[in-house]
Every structure is written in C-alpha cells, then in structure tokens.
Amino acid sequence: MKLILKREWFDPALTLDEQVFHWVENQGVYSAVCAGHVGRLVPCVQGYYLETQDEQEYVFWRAYFDLDRDYEALAAMGEKYPVIRQALALLPGLRVLNQPPWEALVAFIISANNNTGRIRKLVLSLCREVGGGESCFPTPEALAAVSEERLRQMGMGYRAPFLKETARKVVEGFPLEELSALSYEEAHSRLITLPGVGDKVADCVQLFGLRHSVSFPVDVWVERLMRSWFATGTMSRKAIGEHGRQILGKNAGVAQQYLFHCARRGLIPLDKGA
DNA sequence: AACCAGGTGCGGT
DNA sequence: ACCGCACATGGT
User: Fold this and answer.
1) Cβ of A252: how many Cβ atoms within 10 Å?
2) HSE of A270, CA atoms in CB hemisphere, 13 A
3) What local confidence, expressed as pLDDT, does residue A161 receive?
C-alpha cells in the first residue's frame, strides 16, 4: 500500500528536517528507521510516496505523518491572532509529526542548550553506533547498555548520564507509552521526573510523541516571539507556556510549531519592544 | 575571547 | 516558588 504525501500539505524540509533529527536526505529521497519501521519517502508527481508492506505499516506511517489532523481547523486561531494567521500562511506544508515517544524523548534530551546542527549530528551518531545502522533509532535496551564514557566519546557531553539513566528507567518500566492516555498535566509531572527532562523537553515529548497537542514548548525563540507579539512581558518560560495553552487551547502546540519556525527563520520580526 | 544554541539540575534566598 | 550559575561541545 502506498501512502501519498501531497506537496500541498507536506513539506519534508519543514517537517522532517526540523522536528526530528535522524531522517537523512539523499538525492531527494528521505529515509529513516523509526521504532523498527523502515521509512523511505520517494518524490513523485503529487509530492512524496512511502511504500508500506502491510496494513500495520500503513497505519503506523499514517499516524506518524499526522494525516488525521484537521489542519483547516487551525484557521480559527488565526482569526483571533493575526501573527498566527501570518505564520500559517508562511509555512504551508508544515505538519506536526507523531513520533514514537521514546525517540522524541532521547532526541529532545540531546536538544537541551544545543543547536540543531549538532543535535542532528549527535542523534545520527547514536543511530549509527548504538541503533545498529544509519538513521536507525536505538532501542531503550541498547541505549541503557552503552557506557557513559562511550556516550561522552560520541560528544554527548554532560547529557551522557541523563541519557543512560533515562534509558535505564524506561527499561525498568517507566510507562512512557501509557502517558498519552493521561491528561497533559499528569503526563507532564511524570515526565519531568526523568533526568535531563525539564518543562521544555517534557513539552516536546508530549507534543511530538504523546499527541498532547495542547502542549506549548517554550524555547528561546518562542519566548522572544511571545514577548514581541503576545505581551508576555517578564513572564517566566513556564508561565509563557501556561499562557499559550490557555489562550490557544487544544491546538496550541501546532500553532507553536508555526510560530517557532517563523521566528527562527526570521520570517516574523521579533524586535517589537522585546 | 566571550557568547550562543529547541535547557536542566542544584543549591541558596 | 523563584534566581543564578555551572555545565560539554562546536560554531561565530
């Protein structure tokens, strides 16, 4: 079965290169192995297609690429907030992926106080050296078995013990998959008990891995944008996140992605009194 | 040479 | 609950 991703609503450069760090592009073809599923996006007339072997694979990738979300419904937020309307118009083809929670967890622990180029480099070396193949994300068991020293040699720095310890907790039964059935608040408070996971990383895991689309991660860029356009003044990042969830509601996190990418790419000015 | 990058942990108010 | 600082690493 072929999964078609039409160019009108799917842009790999916006979606795969920016939200997940182990997809690699080669002559127009994007590939990665996610939770054991082999993904290969091939360009075609309509945009891209992904060939799947059976029903189960089809269902996995359909969910991964968020094909069941109503992106038209986002326009409602744009009516109330012009900057969101602008962001939606500037980035057609941006979607919010539904990654395996474990993969989002590891990638975003690595993301802390780091830049995207190096995050990608680190995640890819983790795939290569621990996952057992190019772009093949490692299992919790595999990561838990790696020594801290080896993780440091890969360049993980002070995050090395966080990664190892978090992997160990997941192997010991931390109910990562079950968190999506809990409320945003409940899942959040459990996630931040993991080492290397604070509010921001937990929010990313919830948004990208647990389908908690109300989650509103606040990093340096979103903080700047919110100060410029939403009068958040001297609010802490935690308070800005609460504010975002409150005023934007169930799709706050989807809006956050559009705002984040616009801010980071300089598509929306941030100097408005910030 | 400082400062920054999709922050977090920790110890002190 | 809030605040300030250290923290690995690589790029300007």
Assistant:
1) 23
2) 18
3) 98
